[in-house]
Fold:
Amino acid sequence: MGEDIRFVLNGKRVEVTVNPLKSLLRVLREDLRRTDVKAGCEQGECGSCTVIVDGKTINSCLYPAGQADGKQVTTIAGLNDERETQLIQKAYIEEGAVQCGFCTPGLILVTRVLLDKNPSPGEAEIRVAISGNLCRCTGYKKIFNAVKRAAKYLGKGEKPLPRKTALRKIQ
Amino acid sequence: MNVIGVSVARNDAQEKVAGTAKYIDDYAFGNMLYGATVRSSVACGKILSIDTATALKISGVAGVFTYRDVPGKNSVPLVFGDYPFLAENNVLFYGQPVALLVADSEETARHAARQVRVEYEKAPAVFDVLEALKKDSPKIYGDNNVFKKYDIIKGDIAKGFKDADVRVEDVFTTNYQVHCYMEPQGMVADPQPDGGMAVYGTMQCPFYVHDAVAAILGVSQNRVKIVQTTTGGAFGGKEDVPSVVAGHSALLAHLTKRPVKIIYTREEDFHSMSKRHPSRVEIKYGAKKNGKITACSVRYILDAGAFSTLSPIVLWRGAVHSAGPYDIPNVKIEALAVATNKVPCGAFRGFGQPQATFANESLIDKLAEKLSISPLKLRRLNMLGIGSETATGQKIEKSCGFKKVIDTVVEKAKWDKIYLPPEKRSGRVKTGIGVAAAFYGVGLGAGGRHLDRAGSYVQIQKDGAVLVAIGNTEMGQGLLTVVSQIAAEALGAPYDFIKVMLPDTTRVPDSGPTVASRSTLMSGNAVKNACEIIRRNIDRTVLGMAGVRKGASYKGEVCSDGKNYFIKGAPKKKINYFELVKKCYAARVNLSSNGWYTGEEVDFSDVTGQGKAYYVYTYSATVAIVSVNTETGEVDVKKIVSGHDIGRAINPQQCEGQIEGGVMQAAGYALTENLVLKDGIIQNPNFAGYLIPTPDDVPEIVPVIVEEAYSDGPYGAKGLGESPMITPAAAIANAIYNATGWRVYSLPATPEVLTALRANFNHGRRHKICTERKKG
Structure:
């Protein structure tokens, strides 16, 4: 049943022989050992398994691996070295938008794709962009704030706070 | 204070944003097998046969095992120990573990587990608590289906109601709530050469898991090592169930002599996981015309499911708090945890209190209306304060910021501008405002006092970096960060150089469970204790370096600015932290210590329910503003202001995160999270059918922190995790009433529930008009 599937993963060519109907999530995690992609529900509801395929975020749990053939697949590990991603990650940390962290890689990818297309999204646009990603810890408010802060860093060139001054005294 | 009350960045966030944090499913061990659970397909029955032949023929299957293969004790060690790791002759709920299958891949294991044929003789089942309490009902537990009963009796209840000018009573019910942490349950067990077992996984309570693995294998506890891996949310759902998952994986690893991983699918997680108990609360208040409450009686019933697991202690907490956060002279509470043929319920953030709070805070609003007193005034008139007494007769002696909490949330919600009585609300979409208040006993209280202790181990390493071991877990709530702040403050060391490790049961003694908002207090104090012991050695060295001679009884207090030590009064003569550490190492000064903390003494009578139930309480109040579409029954939450007296906010930003997250979980509980069961089987075991809040549902959330320091808390802190889950649902229900005049008697208040209420309301109004006309 195996078929050869070739795609570019985080800038490198990969080739796997798998059932083309196996989910891209399972192929990434099991066959390619990319554990930065998380399996939250495997029913396309939670968004923890978000990856970028040819510039668009998708739920990799519902995406047949065969469909990725010849495409560019990007996980968070593929973007960690890029300045834009690092600024988004900094914004998430500064805003306290990370708790258990299981949904976080997916959210960072969604934020990256959003800000690449729309450098200064309003809150309504942010809500739409992340509407496919569930988070049970934060209540989302700090995630909205993180996206807004990231937009400032990326779009307006505002510099992130140095680590020390990121401390906020209680009001 | 250098780093207390400061929103430092979380010290586990970088690996989480980069996707490098390792959750249990991200671990792989050499030669690893995968386990899957064969579960009961009936709600109640006798196991006639288990046919494994087809499953065993599948390539890759290494074995199928039942309770007969358990070398130790086939009982999950929780409160009563009635829950078997694997069913023996009978099953009591749909989804109960019957057998375990192990194979060389996850896919094969799951597929083959479905090929194990179990034949059952179905027996009559009972799914409703009132049915279960009937004399002629099928018996699941004992001769009355009651796992546990508590009575709390204060004053003279009959007199209390007799003295009252006004009485109100009602029955309130709530449905299940599912934790829906994003990371499903999972464990890996790795057999050790000495016959012992190391188990890694997602968990809240490593020492419960420790007990469970030693029990199922029948080995001594020093051969079992439990290590928590980065945990993707828990909310109470990883308190008891991980003992089952770990027991299963350890059993399979023991039998196959290979590492075994078990990861639950989301659907399996929904079916088999503990949940918030459905409840039925019959409650009555009596009050004087002036609003002073004279009596409260409560019958508080929890639907515990088929096994007792944690229900007795959930029941206890719920019961103790069920009369509300008020000073009431006459109280009678009867609390029952009742067995039904459904999945066992367990811990969920709030631990029995959200159910009770929905009931008492709804009824307090009704009482206010009947007395023609504003709901705020009635609460203020009766609320607990220093010197007043709880339902268990406990005098509140310290750390009570209740008044400030209520005043602040009311002000921030602009209550006075928004409040109108329901009859003055108009339009198709109506606005409403509601309030709810609660108190929360921090820690395990008298019900679990033997577990209320914590250990720690702290060492400053040669380069000045600090390694801290604790026994409580990080599940997302921020414990590693908060404990790092406490260690940095107590040692006078820089925050960035503190590393707190996830628990490993071989490092620190049993520190109890990570529940009940107890970890900042317990582990925080245990770490502070260790740091203070180390600090004595440091201070002695500092004084020595400053020329304060030995034997001169060390005059002068050593202070720290987080980078340098200095002697009080001489802040200019500084000794750098790192230099001092070097000096200490050179002089062979011990820079390591164990720490220990036990909570203050508490006591409680099993007969009357009177006593000091908890050593300290947090106080909270939430105001909700909603708009209700009176045609569709849809509720749009506009704003939530939620205030909490938590003693001291060690990290205000993380505290806000707890409040905002708790508020949204509570909003889901109030409105959308509706688990549907048919004949004991969950019909919507997934995020498509069970609706937790999404980014689209988020209202304006205003977190409010009040700090009324607790003398025994680390830098005054009490605790926070649970509190934000307790009041918002009741506040939303009261806001719905304020908008529409429809009193919500059951949660969740879905559009279907609300449109039914509207029909009743209109019917009642027509009835009233007709009666008045007739009279006229």
